[in-house]
Amino acid sequence: MNADHIIQEIVNLPAEERRKVIDFVRNLVGQQFEEEQIKIAQKRIEEYDMGLEKAVHHEEAIRLLRKA
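Above: the chain sequence. Below: its structure as tokens.
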């Protein structure tokens, strides 16, 4: 099943079901973004701990972790 087929299936759903599916997909995208931000923050903290301070903004990494 390709993206066009999936989109057509969603479009053909009743309005309430379509809204639920779209909300679910948006939540998934948001979770993926947060997971990526956490990975980036963890990597920056590890680099900071290894003494690579020039390449790492420690405060930014901590902020990203707190935000997620």
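The radius of gyration is 19 Å.
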